[in-house]
Design a protein that fits this description.
The protein is α/β, with parallel strands linked by helices and 380 residues long. The protein has 2 domains: 2-191 and 366-379, Glycogen Phosphorylase B (Rossmann fold, 3-Layer(aba) Sandwich), CATH 3.40.50.2000; 203-364, Rossmann fold, CATH 3.40.50. Helix content is 44%, strand content 14%. The chain is built from 16 helices and 13 strands. Helix 4 (77-106) packs parallel to helix 5 and helix 4 (77-106) crosses helix 6. It is globular and about 60 Å long. 48% of the residues are buried. GO terms for molecular function: hexosyltransferase activity; UDP-glycosyltransferase activity. Residues 243-379 form the Erythromycin biosynthesis protein CIII-like C-terminal domain. Keywords: Transferase. Pfam families: EryCIII-like_C, EryCIII-like_N.
Amino acid sequence: MRFLFIAGGGAAPVHAGAPLASAARTAGHDVIVAAPDENIELINGLGLPARGVTELGMGEAMLKDRQGNWLSMPSTEDEEMDFAGRGFARLSAAAYRATEELAEAWKPDVVIGGEYNHAAPLIAHRFGIPHVRHTWAIYDRTEVDWQGATDELEQELSRFGLTEIPGSDLFVDITPPSLRPEGAEAAQAMRWTPGNPQLPLQPWMYAKGDRPRVLITSGSRSVFVPTLGIDFFRPLLSNSLLASGDVEVVVATSEPVAAQLRAEFPDIKAGFLPLDVVAGTADLAVHHGGGVTVMTLLNAGVPQLVLPEILASAIPMRRVDAQGASITLDSHTEPVETVATAAAKILSDSSYRDNARGLAGEIAGLPAPAEIVKMIEKLV
């Protein structure tokens, strides 16, 4: 069978979708991934064939309207959700035509897309083939972001006489069942597995020393969000706990930022790291609240201290907080001693580690991507 995957919207959604695409390929199916040009090298590096379908990048899709005008930044949770929904819709609209041409030439049997890769349901509707939709991270869809995307796609939907984004034939959710919100759409659960790039390992990446290890990262968004660069890390590395020498600090970030950090803080390990490998050695992870970062750490059973870069990042983390596996503060600009106090609390209270491991066990018990591929085969 021919499986057309539609990905993009930054590096993290590519990481999230790669395991299912790889599982389809391992099962013997033909796979092509359609994605924005900016993601093609990453997808190829993960061992998947890919076709670039738009020059529009994630940053521009989010920050500018279709006429290229800069948008005002949102200031509330609902405004952020609407803003994100519309941004992903603009990226999907830009990718649609080239994806349609790809589908016409290649004739896929099924199309699989991330929850906000809206070209996928349109392609499935256009060619009358099954559509599979999957979440990228903890389920956080709201009526606000979905309506924003629907409004933004009015032109594309009207082409097919539609007023709503078409539904899916199979909805796959990687959210651990205990973290699904009340009223969440019914879904087929799937085990979340890492899909991030790798590099040659060094012993310290998979084995820590005698001190507690604190992992800090601001995820892939640091590439195009200035506030997640050096200014995110510097205050954290200066706080009383992390600067004391009582803990070992590892920073996962882009190499240009890492080089600056190594120069300023020579005792830390910093670089572009395989997050899934390093996560397994951490006693605590401090980060910005990105969805794939959260899932990587949940999968590794690591307690989390979240400093949300955007308000909406806190929405799914509140459910992890309620499970006693994390602490989510108000923002990434919290006073350094507030952060130090929260980090010390997690490190000194073993219940956070126990609860995080419980969630990791729940993830491990869900059907693997290979099982989901079998379900997709039955759809076709």
